[in-house]
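Fold this sequence, please.
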Amino acid sequence: MPIANFELKSIDAERFTEKGAKRKNIRVDHNSSVTRMKQLDKNNCAIGFRFTANYKGMGRIEIEGQLIYKGDVPDLASYWNKENQMPSQVANEVHSTIISNCIPEAVFIARDLQLPPPIPLPKVNIPNKKDKKRKRKGGMEVA
């Protein structure tokens, strides 16, 4: 994998609503962006990033950090300077790494601020005992 090192530099989070306030249809928007790119040597490049989870009207979580990308760094740095973006394959790897490392951190921060987790929770559906009996009642068993 071309990502050699991943580190968080700052975490800023805030809840805007009061503790007991109930809201329905909470929308959480995620965003990861590359803030800077610096060539360290011919094989390594430092990429600064910002990850944001924005709870519309409820709060926000912002995480900033840096990762080290290994690979064809001179071409990557020149492309970044010209286009202010990365090639799509590199961008996929970088943003996937950012999201996969920042989402778990944001879940713990959201818990501490008493915000909903920034990921959809699975729905648990356990049928009642009455529902189980009804389903077994009318069928024929086949072996």
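The first strand starts at residue 3 and ends at 15. Residues 13 and 74 are 36 Å apart (CA to CA).
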